[in-house]
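Researcher: We are triaging several targets before committing to wet-lab work. For this one, the compound of interest is coenzyme A. I'm pasting the protein sequence and the ligand SMILES. What I need is the predicted three-dimensional arrangement of the protein with the ligand bound, expressed as structure tokens, so it can go straight into our comparison scripts without reformatting.
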Amino acid sequence: METRTDKITEIVLKAARKARRETSSAPQQEGRGRANWPLDCTVGPGLEGAIACETKIGFVNGTRGELTYCGYDIFDLCAYSTFEEVSYLLLYGRMPTAKQFASFKRKLVKSRSLPHTLRLLMGFPLEQMHPMACLRLGTNLMRQRLTWQDSDAARPDSVAAIAADEDSIPMETIPKGEQKAIYEFKKRKTERPAKVPEGTEDAAGLAACIRLISGLSTIAAAVARVRDHKLPIEPDPELGHAANYLYMMNGVRPTPEQERIMDIALILHADHGMNASTFASMVVASTLSDIYFSIGSGIAALSGPLHGGANEAVLVMLEKIGHPDNVDAWFDKAMRRKKKIMGMGHRVYKTYDPRARILGPLASYVARDNPDAALLLRIARKLEKRVVESLGKEKNIFPNVDYYSGIVYKAMGIHRNMFTPVFAVSRVAGWTARVHEYLKKNRIFRPRALYVGAFGKEYKPLDERGRGKTTSR
Ligand SMILES: CC(C)(COP(=O)(O)OP(=O)(O)OC[C@H]1O[C@@H](n2cnc3c(N)ncnc32)[C@H](O)[C@@H]1OP(=O)(O)O)[C@@H](O)C(=O)NCCC(=O)NCCS
């Protein structure tokens, strides 16, 4: 008997057949062969076309609209695999055996529970912070808690300076000219245990990668709940990664159908070439800073609306359009104002993003019994048609991964502020894998800029520079 999750697999396979039909005639793309070093290339703003390193992790074929992880086609992975298996694939470069997979899953489950980190995190005003800022803070707190690297360094161990509550020192009593303390230190009993649990000092190896892949979902779920005025809940070790993430966020165990859709969404976002957040993570790691810091940088880079923040921006845009009847007028105005359509266009894909090919039909599937999502979907479909008709041929602008993901998440009850965190919960697999791979042959990133400014300017004292406006360069 066909189950509902079988139906989802059929959606993915149908999207795959369509993609293969449509892309098979496009020419094979550059980048499959070996480049000869030193490479002679022209590098423009945004490092477009620059090659940063060799990798075996993933390949994005922008002209054919193909995406592979370690040689496996994204459509096959979505149809048959799970996020845990894909994480293993990215980290180790091969599919696990049953025994390896069971052990890997045990490690992920073990790393899910972060009571101390969450307790520290709850001390911050999470409901007032951007969720991505919370995630970034969360990874810093994981680092502090799990590596013990910073536990002794940050605070003075003496209270000689000021030994009273901050509020009890009226500022006016501090003599002028003396250093003013804006904060006072109390002697803290250091929490560092006599013997750090085995492996936890490691902040740059595979153990840290696994902890981050697992732990970020716990942090993201806790942040979602706190922002919704609810207390975080304990992970359920019986659930798979996608199901547990949904459970920790929503407080109810997802249906197999919801779990499957979330799993596919996590697989789709797990890695994507040398994108901005991956590059940010790698740049930080290349200084031999550690993986926790580098993932924090990836989170920061992902938060921008030109990158992961686009999925939230798409929903805002669709809600603003409000009705399919408004699409034409809205689009014409946007074009007159040279506005970019969120969720459209891509630096690498010059055709339909294969991830959008899967998320589009999945959005239709989840919108069947969700009128709000169904309305947004009708708007999105009409806008897509307009964009592809007018910008597709002319500028190679097509839907990207962010165009439909928000509708899928919304239909699954996820608040739009938490869309980009879902992206991070998935992309952490790619970030860690690529950092781990790069560190094996590390070379600090240090590109150069083409200086186009002046030379030999004469320095004039302030009072000789006149009163008028000066130009900045
Ligand atoms: C993803 C993105 C940053 C790639 O940018 P890029 O490779 O630097 O491309 P450019 O910004 O140089 O755009 C090239 C041309 O296409 C146009 N263009 C690019 N994306 C567009 C969009 N989403 N809507 C309308 N026009 C777009 C640009 O205006 C530019 O036109 P011009 O040559 O007439 O000036 C860009 O497409 C974008 O901002 N998209 C919207 C945000 C988004 O969805 N981001 C998620 C990416 S996964």
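Researcher: Any quick observations?
Model: The longest strand covers residues 58-61.
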